[in-house]
């Protein structure tokens, strides 16, 4: 037995995800989220269940003021408008000026010219972390996606290379989430194998993960490992919620329960993080 | 046993709802929804559970671009603003120009002068389907509702006549949903008796049905029968979800589970569709 | 046995909460809510489950028209914009002009200068009820909050004094909700001890309570007692939902079920209301 919840012999001993979860809950960080309308409620509930304190503050008249007092900021481009984009930029600048971490979630940045423009603009404002799926990270990195003939392994390798390139450009961390997550600071990286196939069948679980990442960044001191821990925590909650779920509806309910129920010890034992 | 999930001796043999559900799931159509804030999350989850791919894209800067790549569009006037109305009109025009079906959901169109104006404007843009409750369809059709003395049977007959009149005017299909649903192309029609009294006790289930209708239209080839199948599918999921539900909260969760669980065979056996 | 659901020997015999719940359900009042994006869905479901009829109508083009036909109006400043503020002011003026009660929920009014300004402005428009937590009521009352050295008892006393001062200023009722709720008309008051610690772990349950207060005001005739009854009803549903809940996710689902399940008799027996 050790005096911490993380056993010393995990595959990625530097991450110590259990300790990071405990630290996040002890800090109960105030996380400001400018997110899309679809995600607002579930994201707030996910943050509350995990032990953080969410604030959904997006008005241009107050977003920058609030970013100065929050412990972290997250910005999601899922449902845009020009007013909101102005508010996002002001909030991101305020977070940076006050030394607060901020996270960009470039939802469907590849889908329209407007999203591509806004996504590139926000990515230029020094996000501490960009979290997206493979298509989003590749689109934002400017890398060409694998051709039709590319197999799944090639696609993963391409996405990871895109993440490193994007990280090098922004100077922040980049996370690609999917069946296996990958997070990198441009040089070092981790793969996280936690998760469950029901997770993408519930809307806004990716968006909500962005909030959880913000909470771990706010409370942590080693950002790359903070995010590896956040991703493992979220995936483990999904694995546990899937046990006994009767479909995506009951899974979504159990998932919120599990974000509250997973202990630091559970996470230390259940995290599947490997250096990459 | 037949080689399809639909038995040949149903009351409405042309509908083949099981086949239509299977076709929708095989296509997993991308359905763009411009809907109200109350409904966005549950509508996205309903579409995901049923097997479609939802996208909640409403910004004026991108709604028309997105309608060009989506397989269907749905527009709901539940929470309006002038910017959104402009976006709705652009998206509807784009859908029509690109040969994509689009569905209008005239929520509470009778309640204010603003809604009446916007509803009439959108109804003039060739919706493939208008889906509403009896009061909404009657208000949009311009028909006078039954007087205080009218009994329930008269009210149903009036709503069905209003639906046919509205269909004749727009050139599209019109569906009136309620305890028994009715769908018509102005000439032919079907009544669908599936459903459960708990459904109207959960907010946004009507709005979400509009999305499901869009998914069936996107994947189908006989619009009147596509909608009859969609209505039966939705109602059957409600009937199954009500079994064991402890109230509207647990019903809403089970309903999402059932949208995923109902098989084509279940629907072929459980659909209660009759020509009307 | 008496002929009403309220026993004559409760600590606050004038409240008769069971009768008030029965009256609200019999009236099924149409409650218009201008609320934040996070709360819209759960607030609508809470009102439906409790037996009222919610309408989420906030557009400037129609909010005042709708307030004229609704039975009550609630306004929540959780997610603001200048357009919405104009709509809120028009709706509040319309409600007052038409003799309809309206409720103000000053969410996080202390957090930014913009919120403070909007909160003060709306509080000046004769709200029938202001409902907030202690920090919100203190901020709006202009009272200084207790210093760091103040103990919990002092903080409660300060909040109750702030509520009375705010009530005297607005001429309406003020409710401070927390572990024990307090409601006052500036002179008389009640404390309500119902509730459960899981309630603040679910987002928007405070916002939704504002809607329930609107429903009880719409149906009642003694506003101070109407609100005491509404607070007891809501807290009792929370107590019952917590039995068997596996965490905040399943609690939130059971809570909606319980809003529908609590009977007037249950409330008469379970309400913990004392004059204060």
TrEMBL record, chains A, B, C:
It is an enzyme of class 2 (transferase). It comes from the Bacteria. Its cofactor is Mg(2+). It catalyses: 5-(2-hydroxyethyl)-4-methylthiazole + ATP = 4-methyl-5-(2-phosphooxyethyl)-thiazole + ADP + H(+). Its EC number is 2.7.1.50. Catalyzes the phosphorylation of the hydroxyl group of 4-methyl-5-beta-hydroxyethylthiazole (THZ). Belongs to the Thz kinase family. This is Hydroxyethylthiazole kinase. The gene is thiM.
């Amino acid at each position: 037995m050790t005096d911490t919840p993380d056993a010393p012999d995990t595959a990625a001993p530097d991450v110590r995800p259990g300790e990071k979860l405990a630290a996040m809950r002890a800090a109960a960080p105030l996380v400001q989220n400018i997110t899309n309308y679809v995600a607002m409620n579930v994201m707030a509930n996910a943050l509350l269940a995990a032990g953080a304190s969410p604030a959904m503050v997006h008005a241009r008249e107050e977003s920058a003021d609030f970013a100065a007092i929050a412990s972290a900021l997250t910005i999601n481009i899922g449902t845009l408008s020009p007013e909101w984009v102005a508010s996002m930029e002001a909030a991101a600048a305020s977070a940076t000026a006050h030394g607060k971490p901020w996270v960009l979630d470039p939802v469907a940045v590849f889908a329209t010219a407007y999203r591509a423009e806004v996504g590139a603009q926000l990515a230029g404002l020094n996000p501490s972390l960009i979290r997206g799926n493979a298509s989003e990270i590749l689109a934002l990195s400017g890398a060409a996606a694998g051709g039709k003939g590319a197999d799944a392994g090639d696609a993963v390798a391409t996405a990871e290379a895109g993440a490193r390139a994007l990280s090098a450009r922004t100077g922040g961390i980049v996370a690609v989430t999917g069946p296996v997550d990958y997070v990198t600071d441009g040089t070092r990286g981790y793969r996280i194998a936690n998760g469950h196939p029901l997770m993408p069948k519930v809307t806004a679980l990716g968006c909500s993960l962005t909030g959880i990442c913000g909470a771990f960044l706010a409370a942590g001191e080693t950002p790359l490992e903070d995010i590896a821990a956040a991703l493992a925590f979220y995936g483990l909650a999904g694995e546990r919620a899937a046990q006994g779920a009767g479909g995506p509806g009951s899974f979504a309910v159990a998932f919120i329960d599990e974000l509250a129920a997973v202990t630091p010890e559970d996470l230390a034992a259940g995290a599947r993080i490997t250096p990459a």
